[in-house]
Amino acid sequence: MNEKHDSDCRSKYTQKLSHTSLTQDEKTEATYHMGETNDKDIHSCSCVIPIIFQYLPAKDLLCAQRTCKEWQTELTPPSPAATWLYQSIVASRWPWAKVPCLTSNDDNGATYAEAINYAERMKELYIKSQYVQESLLPTVWSDNDFRQSCKYGKYSRWVLAKQFDDGAFLIDLAWAVRILYCLGPQAYLTLDGADTSAYDPAFSTCASDSPGWRLISNRNGYSAMVQQQLLLGKDSYASLEILDQVMTQGKHVHNGPRKPLIAHILEQQPEIQLTKNKNLSRAMDLEEHTKLLSFLLRHPESRMGLLWDVDGVVCRGVTSLAKEWYGCWDTLTGVDAYSIGEPHFRQVPHMFNMTKLGQHVEALSWDECCGF
Asked: Residues with Cβ < 8 Å from 128, sequence gap 6 or more?
């Protein structure tokens, strides 16, 4: 029985080897070592297994981890295979997002301790991100008291529509805030005292002495120079495209298998070339998105403030905040030129508030947002 089992294992092992992306030399080396190894020790062949593991997809690695104790050990930090395991799992679950790279201050490469810390960091990122999206979000959004409180707000009652019952749209809103903060105009972080002002969700729900509100206090308007600084370029306009599609079209993450709207946008409109923006990696950072989404779920006043900000901008037409006409964006299709580049004065405070929200959460630590 044991001989047959070992023979089957080696057969499956050889088949897997033939389908990997290893070079021919690597395959030859692996096969050579496998031939030299006693059949009964095939599971613990340290010369071959690490090579194979680093070329397998996440699904296969998870199966391998459950096969035997030797393989489970090989897929435990700080081994290179363990690092690849958690990197692969995160990348397969959120392929559109960016994850931290293993970096080192040592010119000779990552140290033993750094490798352990990185693998553990990837493991925690996977566990926490999945928990926030698939457990915390539906639990929080099912709170009837909060949902009912939304119907009393002028700019929050839109979430009572049936298509928002699962709360998945909050995942998209968090990505939109990240894109606006990372790619949007710096004016929302510097003008009107924004550079010294602290984020406050109360600024979203009522007029106040705060950035954006002070700027529009004179209803005669502000200078054309200031207005130009508030308009969004082609890449940052992706944030407004997401907000508009979520709210007015009822589109959200369930349009595809766990994909946010930004992933669909990049797939359907590759001509946007958003991926070439050097700040996109920061905007699409999975750790920062998880922090922001968790923060919103754990702070109902900030969640309510964001709902107000979204409607406050979208209901007045997101096209007015575009710097120019961009043919790649759906919301700008068929839009008259006169409606572009002329933001409504009441949109401005909400844009400041969303940008300051992104800045505020990025400054918080991982544990402050996801320490549960």
From this structure: 290, 294, 370
